[in-house]
Amino acid sequence: MSTPFPTLLPPPGPSVLTHPLPPSTSPLDPAIPPAxxxxxxxxxxxxxxxxxxxxxxxxxxxxxxxxxxIVYASVSGPKSHPSSSTPDFSNGPSAQPQDAAQASEQRxxxxxxxxxxxxxxxxxxxxxxxxxxxxxxxGGAWPASGNEKLHSGxxxxxxxxxxxxxxxxxxxxxxLEEYRGLGLGKLLVTTALEWAARNAEVLRPxxxxxxxxxxxxxxxxxxxxxxxxxxxxxxLVLVHAQKGVQGFWRGVGFERDEGLGEWVExxxxxxxxxxxxxxxxx
Length: 282
Description:
Layout: E1 6-9, H1 34-50, E2 67-75, E3 88-89, E4 98-99, H2 100-106, E5 112-122, E6 168-175, H3 184-198, E7 236-242, H4 246-251, E8 255-256, E9 262-265, E10 268-276
Parallel strand pairs: 1-4, 6-7
Antiparallel strand pairs: 1-2, 2-3, 2-5, 5-6, 7-10, 8-10, 9-10
């Protein structure tokens, strides 16, 4: 089996918010990159079909502004029956990401390229962390430790995060069931973090008083007292991990932040986990 290539899709833009979800058969907006549709197909298979999450929440306001990676397998049979085919991952000696156009050109005509795993990296700023004990964003509360006075532009303070340092967030990590156990999840996490470490300037936020960012819920980042802050991303990375797969995230260098507590999304308990990566050239 050759080394898999994670294919990089830069932020695809707002057109993806119109992407039809099952069971809809509406036509696709031609502005939606095919690679996004392929990444979404993996997410739907894992989160909606397998874990029974709502399809209506799978596409969110972070998708248009995120960097996405997709791993493809070359299979000899139909796309709908990957388990009956012998996988051969995209050719090449390196696991460095390609852009979507380059990957498309390099796909071999003798096999069908099946998207089998995906991840996304969301740049700052972010909506506030879910409150401990909340269910799908409703209810819950922070312990009475000063965090009850959270204001726009800051988040809860924990032993790991001071409440305002910019961070990137990994999410929507998914691998088709037939392709688990091959290290694709670890490959995607490693690839995304290595890319981020080389591209810190791209991830640098600049937010000022009254300047909104198109995030969900309360996620409008502002600075207080009219101060403009240009604070670069220093390598802090967050995942909102399903509690049952904490072991995987620990295996790729993340540690749980007990200060973020536990909360429920789509009937699945989640926890917050952090890692700091060393930025190149800093």
